[in-house]
Prior knowledge:
Layout: E1 2-6, H1 12-19, H2 27-32, H3 37-52, E2 60-65, E3 68-74, H4 82-110, E4 119-122, E5 124-127, H5 136-151, E6 155-161, H6 167-172, E7 176-179, E8 192-198
Parallel strand pairs: 4-6
Antiparallel strand pairs: 1-2, 2-3, 3-5, 6-8, 7-8
Helix pairs in contact: 3-4
Amino acid sequence: MITIRPVQLDDIDLIEDRLLYDEITDAETLALVGGDEKLARMYLAKTMQVAHLPVAEWSCVVAVEGDKLVGLLDYSTESMSRVIRLALLHDVVGWKQFLRALPVMYGRQRVNTPVPDDAFFLANLRVDEAQRGRGIGTALMEWAEDKARELGARHMALQTLTSNRARRLYERLGYRVTQSPTHRLYLHGEGRCLMVKAL
């Protein structure tokens, strides 16, 4: 049975080890670090630790089955400053790769879409790759909708790559693409979708 509960400090190592990195959704991170998966994992771990510690202040829930962490839903609205992200990237990759990543960063800014003010924003959804297809993502999304209604939000919103396989899940749950900008410097012309659902 899947249980959804707030993230705890003891979950951090498991999140870093099993849920933090997904080659599809982290294509942007891979591009920033020159395609090195180990550096991508390191950069994501550093950004998570800086942005979400102390963990008691992180707006995040995890899906647990028995003692196994199988999913994560981050609905935090405060994002880390660009200066801190850039400093962390530099720490992980050094100056040479940092300079190579500048076009990707510029392209990312060009495909950024503003989230509606009245929306409950889903910052990150992760399901353990071995556990996909079991309804864990759906359960986390349904939890988020209940939380959004409790808080009085009028819409749900999320951003994802146009090529993300999870888009089928979002569309099945009633999310619709409202914007889908692309830019030649962002992941070779890949687009980012803003998907919104009315509550």
